[in-house]
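Appendix C: a fully annotated inverse folding record. The material below is reproduced so that readers can follow the format used throughout the book. The structure is listed first as tokens, followed by the designed sequence.
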């Protein structure tokens, strides 16, 4: 629209861009400005102004003009001396000169008559940025209302961190796709016993969608946050552990579970292998695929499983029980640090079958993190309280100090345990109290 003062006079700082011309005036302007001597105006000045229509001055490189154009430009602009190099032209003055010429029309109207509507590149960029900002705000608002955040409330803080950190792709449509694919996956986790390819196929329609790339990275950052970690460490072992924390295995053979003297009701290869090894008092290791086969094809519903099952953190306890007690040991499952998907699936099966589960692990920060979900979902603490920690300290011949944690340490099954460990900051590994654990395993068998 034309810019002007309330009384109709032209503001000295405004450059009208909305003049409407009659067809005859347009034709006359085209005929005049069609001459090559006017290309400095219709091409060079136009291109410079279209970079930003809010400009009142543009810079022109005179050396890029032909001699005829340069002479015509100097003559029209009434330069008293010859100029060279890059010069600045006042568009307000140029507009005035055009109006005072035989064309009797302003700059914008002349350029529009010759080359069509002016483009405002800067204005377009500003509009694009504003639209992207609106789209980005809408994306984060919709993400905050996603059912995955209702399922996992701690992810609200993770989502805020993702927005501030700017880790997702810059292109908003791509960012939206990545974020909502990741939220779709998070919305069905944990999913104990599922394989990564199966999960990706079921949720994202592509079995390889979570093998690598921004969606996988986004999901892993969220899983790390749910595990009270703020960064995803490098290495496939760490990524495998994060997936395992949500019950997902990267494949069905690398995820395994170590057991001793565990027998299960049913008919099939895993049932037979368990029975044979239990009779001999030998530890046995089973893959996720074998556990899944048992659950799908070997299990007999309604037949009692072991009534009591012990769970330890370290293989050294299994080794000691096998060497000392052999077949006289009570059923024992070893999670070997953070439980694998295979271990989680087997433990869940024992729990669903009515077995009483008892868990013991290392008295350190990692051991507490492993124990918390196991005990929180029904397992009983096995010599894993404040008094047990004090007894272990008394036997500890090699003191291993713990760095104070950067997060809140909680032991809901025995609040005094966290207090004691924070006071002493000394770990007590399972190996220190193995004799006590073997005593319980023997007593259970008797």
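Designed amino acids, in order:
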């Amino acid at each position: 629209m034309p810019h002007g003062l309330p009384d109709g006079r032209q503001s000295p700082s405004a450059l009208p861009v909305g003049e409407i011309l009659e067809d005859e005036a347009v034709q006359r302007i085209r005929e005049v400005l069609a001459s090559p001597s006017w290309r400095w105006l219709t091409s060079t000045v136009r291109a410079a102004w279209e970079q930003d229509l809010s400009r009142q001055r543009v810079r022109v490189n005179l050396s890029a003009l032909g001699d005829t154009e340069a002479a015509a430009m100097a003559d029209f602009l009434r330069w008293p001396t010859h100029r060279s190099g890059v010069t600045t032209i006042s568009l307000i003055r140029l507009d005035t000169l055009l109006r005072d010429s035989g064309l009797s029309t302003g700059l914008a109207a002349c350029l529009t008559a010759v080359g069509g509507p002016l483009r405002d590149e800067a204005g377009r960029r500003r509009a694009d940025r504003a639209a992207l900002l609106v789209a980005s705000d809408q994306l984060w608002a919709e993400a905050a209302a996603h059912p995955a955040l209702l399922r996992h409330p701690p992810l609200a803080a993770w989502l805020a961190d993702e927005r501030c950190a700017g880790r997702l792709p810059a292109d908003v449509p791509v960012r939206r796709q990545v974020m909502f694919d990741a939220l779709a996956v998070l919305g069905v986790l944990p999913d104990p016993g599922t394989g990564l390819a199966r999960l990706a196929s079921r949720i994202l329609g592509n079995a390889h969608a979570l093998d690598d790339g921004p969606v996988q990275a986004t999901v892993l950052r969220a899983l790390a946050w749910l595990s009270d970690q703020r960064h995803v460490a490098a290495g496939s072992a760490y990524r495998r552990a994060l997936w395992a924390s949500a019950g997902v295995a990267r494949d069905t053979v690398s995820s395994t579970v170590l057991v001793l003297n565990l027998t299960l009701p049913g008919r099939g290869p895993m049932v037979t292998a368990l029975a044979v090894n239990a009779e001999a008092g030998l530890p046995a290791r089973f893959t996720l695929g074998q556990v899944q086969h048992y659950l799908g094809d070997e299990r007999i519903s309604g037949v009692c499983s072991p009534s009591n099952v012990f769970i330890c953190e370290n293989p050294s306890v299994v080794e000691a029980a096998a060497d000392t007690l052999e077949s006289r040991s009570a059923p024992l499952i070893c999670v070997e640090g953070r439980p694998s998907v295979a271990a989680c699936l087997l433990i869940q099966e024992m729990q669903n079958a009515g077995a009483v589960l008892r868990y013991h692990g290392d008295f350190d920060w990692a051991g507490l993190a492993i124990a918390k979900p196991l005990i929180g979902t029904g397992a009983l603490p096995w010599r894993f309280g404040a008094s047990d920690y004090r007894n272990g300290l008394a036997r500890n011949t090699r003191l291993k100090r713990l760095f104070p944690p950067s997060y809140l340490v909680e032991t809901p099954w025995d609040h005094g345990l966290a207090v004691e460990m924070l006071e002493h900051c000394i770990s007590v590994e399972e190996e220190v109290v193995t004799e006590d654990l073997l005593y319980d395993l023997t007593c259970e068998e008797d």
